[in-house]
Design a protein that fits this description.
The protein is α+β, with helices and mostly antiparallel strands. The protein is built from eleven helices and 16 strands. It starts with 9 loop residues before the first strand and ends with a strand.
């Protein structure tokens, strides 16, 4: 390659598929693959033929510098064990791998020449469809790499603009949150795409299924996006939830495998009857382990993001005196901004401690509660609350005080409006509400035709509501302080929290169409109602479907305060507000 060639377009491809761009200063130097950490040596200029713009290490082993058997074994294990295991499943790949496994088995045991000829024709069609899928995976991998590079550049520009004071910290936080979420999604997609391009095991692809050979050509060879999700308000809690789900998935698969092993060693059932389940659970465990490795690595990278946020905060604090002197901000605004930055820096310290606890956790039981992170509060983004007792206590106290105040005010208004002389017997005043207020009565001897007083039933509002026993015009009624208290208590009871049970019964995820979810809602009285919803649609008004994970067959529900992971086939309790 001549010195005048445009070296910025030269790329080196590792054995694991990682694409690395070489600039002017990288030729002839030692290094490592940024994905599998394989030791490599970049070629000298003289070793590159004119017009060559990329080199694949699988075709040029002379650029691999594995100096010891231990290092070679480690790099090989990373390439074959880690890179070849996806985090999510891909349905077209699962069908192709299943058909390939069935073809190999039937070719091995078939003796008829005609049947072998037919099976070989099916195999040729299978290879053609798989080649189309591999090409699509390769194209999407390149697109992801290009977009990821663009995201990294935008993040760097955003950090620089915030450090020099070109943008306010709240704007920086909003932009960086959006860019970081997209970056993490692309990083995960690249892991999946690299693994899908090397995968031939149907169980690792998602599970063995029976595929008719006549259906091979109808398989759509497209690597459609797998993790369809709504952009979260904050990246760190979202990553923590993904990490927690991976740990739980691995632990569940391990428990099932232990149960199968127990039957094999001393149980009444032979393990041969669980062979299919055992293979499937091993594949699930392998995908979960890959997911754990991925999210732990991404959490370590996010720790650097939090340190960057701290640096931005410190630089903006240094700019405050100058901005005050130049009168860019009013004095009270400068003080308010300084206090916000100082609070943000304190929250960054909490975020770092939280991430370190996440990274150190080896089981889901060791994970810390997921608190509301700084990244939501500073940019005005809605919080995802955690399980801290202080937060729960504050919410409960606020709700109780608010309901009590509403009850007292409404009770006083009712007494003022329906003031009248004492009337014998239990007097009921029906208002347009979901409750009936029972006024205190003055005891008097019961009349012969008067039944004993009963508790006033709830009067539901309707267009034909009958209002009984209203005070007659001109009559007055002495008010009693206890009336306000009883009325306030009755109105306070009108606002209550009920719990419903929901079950994810089915998922329809067709190519080119948004996923749809069949959900059964069980009311407190035991009645059932089946509904069909899509992403971003609501369940029971306040709960919204925020995310869908086809690999785990789960949806994430969010009500503005809490997150609930709904797994297919399992019932969960949801709190809804009534009144």
């Amino acid at each position: 390659m001549s010195s005048g060639d445009n070296v910025s377009k030269f790329h080196l491809f590792c054995l694991c598929g990682q694409k690395m761009r070489l600039n002017e200063t990288m030729f002839g130097r030692k290094g490592r693959c940024i994905s599998c950490r394989l030791k490599i040596r970049t070629p000298h200029r003289a070793e590159i033929a004119d017009g060559v713009r990329e080199i694949h290490l699988k075709d040029h082993p002379e650029f691999i510098r594995e100096n010891s058997p231990e290092e070679a074994e480690r790099a090989s294990s990373i390439r074959h064990a880690h890179v070849s295991v996806p985090i999510d499943t891909l349905e077209p790949l699962m069908m192709l791998c299943s058909a390939g496994k069935r073809l190999r088995k039937e070719l091995e045991f078939t003796r008829s020449a005609n049947e072998k000829k037919t099976l070989k024709a099916h195999r040729s069609r299978l290879k053609k469809v798989r080649a189309e899928l591999d090409n699509d995976i390769h194209e999407r991998l390149m697109e992801s790499a290009i977009e990821l590079t663009s995201i990294q550049e935008k993040l760097a520009d955003c950090v620089l603009s915030a450090r020099v004071g070109e943008i306010e910290f709240a704007e920086y936080r909003e932009k960086s949150t959006r860019l970081r979420w997209r970056r993490e999604s692309l990083e995960k997609r690249q892991v999946n795409l690299r693994a899908w391009g090397r995968l031939s095991d149907p169980d690792l692809a998602g599970g063995y299924i029976e595929v008719a050979f006549s259906d091979i050509e109808r398989i759509t060879p497209k690597a459609a996006p797998v993790n369809i999700s709504v952009e979260p308000g904050a990246v760190l809690p979202w990553m923590a939830v993904m990490f927690r789900n991976a740990l739980s998935e691995k632990e569940l698969a391990k428990r099932k495998l232990d149960e199968i092993k127990r039957h094999d060693t001393g149980g009444p059932v032979s393990v041969e009857k669980f062979r299919r389940v055992r293979v499937s659970q091993k594949a699930i465990r392998a995908r979960a382990a890959q997911s754990i490795r991925f999210w732990r690595g991404r959490l370590e990278a996010f720790l650097d993001d939090v340190r960057t946020d701290e640096q931005v905060i410190n630089e903006q604090l240094k700019l405050m005196p100058g901005r005050r002197q130049l009168a860019e901000l009013r004095h009270e605004n400068v003080s308010q901004t300084e206090n916000q930055l100082l609070n943000a820096r304190d929250e960054c310290k909490k975020d770092k401690a939280f991430i370190k606890r996440l990274i150190a956790a080896q089981a889901s039981s060791e994970l810390p509660p997921i608190p509301g992170m700084f990244s939501e509060s500073s940019a005005g983004i809605s919080k995802i609350p955690g399980k801290s007792s202080a937060w729960i206590y504050a919410v409960v106290v606020s709700v109780i005080l608010g309901l009590a105040a509403i009850g007292v005010i409404l009770g006083a208004l009712l007494i003022t409006r329906f003031s009248a002389a004492p009337i014998s017997g239990p007097e009921r005043v029906s208002i347009r509400s979901e409750r009936t207020i029972e006024q205190p009565r003055i005891p008097e001897p019961p009349q012969p035709d008067t039944a004993p007083p009963e508790p006033a039933p709830a009067v539901l509002p309707s267009g034909n509501e009958i209002v009984e026993d209203l005070p007659i015009d001109g009559e007055t009624e002495t008010s009693d302080p206890e009336s306000a208290e009883s009325s306030g208590g009755a109105m306070e009871a009108a606002i209550d929290y009920n719990a419903i049970r929901v079950e994810l019964r089915g998922i329809v995820n067709a190519e080119g169409r948004p996923p749809r979810f069949s959900i059964r809602i069980t009311s407190p009285d035991g009645t059932h109602r089946d509904i069909v919803r899509e992403l971003k649609s609501s369940i029971a008004e306040i709960w919204t479907i925020r995310e869908f994970n086809p690999g785990l067959q789960t949806i994430t529900l969010y009500n503005g305060q809490e997150i609930t992971i709904l797994r297919r086939g399992e019932e969960h309790e949801l709190k809804i507000q009534e009144g």
